[in-house]
Amino acid sequence: MSISNKDYHLLQPDGYSYILYSKENNTTYHKPLVTPLQLKHSQFIVKCRPTYIDHLTQNNITIEATNSDEFLAQLNTPKLKDLTPSILDSIIFHLHFLNENTSLKQLSKRYQCDTKNIENLFKRSVGLSFIQYQNILITLRRPTY
């Protein structure tokens, strides 16, 4: 997605991570949002799985580009495509696509993982607590009238 018709656009929290590239050749990483993110004119936006930014930083992977084509080409390199999903990715997939409010205890049983471990994974990898993340998803599922 590229923002070009307005000066800015507000990206509402949706539980995903984002990589932004601007004309000034800046690449910024954003873990899942609690507040809207202001997108500026002519930014390229890449929507990622929620844990992707943490994977990049843990593996010391940076995306440096001198133009938008180079930025997009780097997203297709093996070092980025070969990042292995974690147990947290499975848990987040469960939360996003099964459309149910699941407790930490239920997730703990289903994924054979301690509740404290799940909570710590959320805080470290996503930057939000489990409850904060789940509240974002609940808000997204509310019908709008």
How is this structure best described in words?
This protein has 145 residues and is of the alpha+beta class. It has 2 domains: 8-77, no CATH class; 87-141. The chain is built from 7 helices and 5 strands, in the order βββββααααααα. It has helices at residues 52-58, 68-74, 78-81, 87-97, 104-111, 115-126, 130-141, and strands at residues 8-11, 17-21, 27-30, 37-40, 44-48. Strands 3-2-5 form a 3-stranded antiparallel beta sheet, with no helix packed on it. It has a two-stranded antiparallel ribbon with strand order 1-4. Strand 2 and strand 3 form a beta hairpin. The longest helix is centred in the C-terminal third of the chain and has 12 residues, at 115-126. The relative contact order is 0.16.
